[in-house]
Amino acid sequence: MRTRDFSRAPRQARAEALVVVEGAAGTSGRWLRRLARRAEGHVWSAGVRARDADGRAVRGRVVCLATPQDAEDLAHRAARGGARTRLFLAEPDGYSNGVWRAEGDVMAHVERFTPLTSEVVHGRTPPLVAPAPPRRRGADAPPAAPAAPARAGGRPVDAGAMFLGATRYRGPHSWAVLGREWYPMVAAMRRMKGYVWHRVYWEPPFTLGTLAFFADRDALLLFARLPAHRRLMEWITRDRRHGTGGYIRVHVAAADDTPGAAP
Fold it and tell me: What is the distance, to the nearest Å, from the Cα of residue 35 to the centroid of all Cα atoms in its chain?
């Protein structure tokens, strides 16, 4: 469900900005971790392992920060160390469900998709989030989508928008059921024109989260409309059998006016 109150969601959801820091050649992971954890307003961070256009390994870090000013300060400090950076600002509106929903302990999906730029400009109503296909009696998993060949990814420091989200699952059985839909969905995402990079993280006992970067906000919103993604969201919000909470926050890249900002 849509919300602006993330007070009951994990700490990552409450961060109002984040910075992608990409180290210069030879930069150690220890330096990146220390830079992130010593930053004023540091909330949470995760490592980045990507490849540049020539196939060389790129090391970096995604750092969630309490305020945009904290993020700008970190970007300046990282630039002084020779790093490339990209600052992202969280949109006020996002999504939360179940035990992470401040307005009430509800698990449900939204009625309509978030409008694309063209829909806003032309005053068109975005499409409904269609109901999931009916399950066979006794079936436990969402219907599987066909796999698709993956595209080459990119570097998050070059992205224009990203989402940070997580779901609290019931246990290993739920993960096993999730796998039927998760892998085809990721394959479909990776073949999208606007896909850049993603990674999954785990928090005990059974929370799985995702950071996913796209060329721009519209590419991110188009990912949400993929049939495989819709089926997955319908499945997890239908009841509490497999999950009890979730959230999503969208972050959009700020203007490239800080030292070290990616062009």
Answer: 22
List pLDDT tens digits, range 48-99: 999 888 888 889 999 999 999 999 999 999 999 999 999 999 999 999 999 9
Please report the domains of the chain, with CATH numbers, ordered by start residue: 2-253 (3.30.70.100)
pTM of the model as a whole: 0.89
Q: Which of 96-105, 129-138, 250-259 has the lowest mean pLDDT?
A: 129-138
